[in-house]
Write a structure and sequence with these properties.
Blueprint lengths: L8 H7 L5 H8 L7 H24 L1
Length: 60
């Protein structure tokens, strides 16, 4: 989903802590089949991380 949203392979690889973008490519090229419940949990975690980053940014 990140790749479809415009993230580069390098950005995704770094976020997933892959040492090689070839590993990331294997995951990106896998069909995205997730349940709505799984997506909602993932989206919630992303929103919490985004809020935390925003708060930290305001401190500096």
């Amino acid at each position: 989903m990140a790749h479809q949203g415009g993230a580069s392979m390098e950005e995704i690889s770094k976020a997933l802590t892959h040492s090689d973008t070839k590993t990331t490519k294997d995951y990106v090229d896998t069909p995205a089949i997730v349940t709505l419940s799984t997506f909602n949990k993932f989206e919630g975690q992303l929103m919490r991380a985004k809020e935390k980053a925003s708060k930290l940014k305001q401190l500096y």
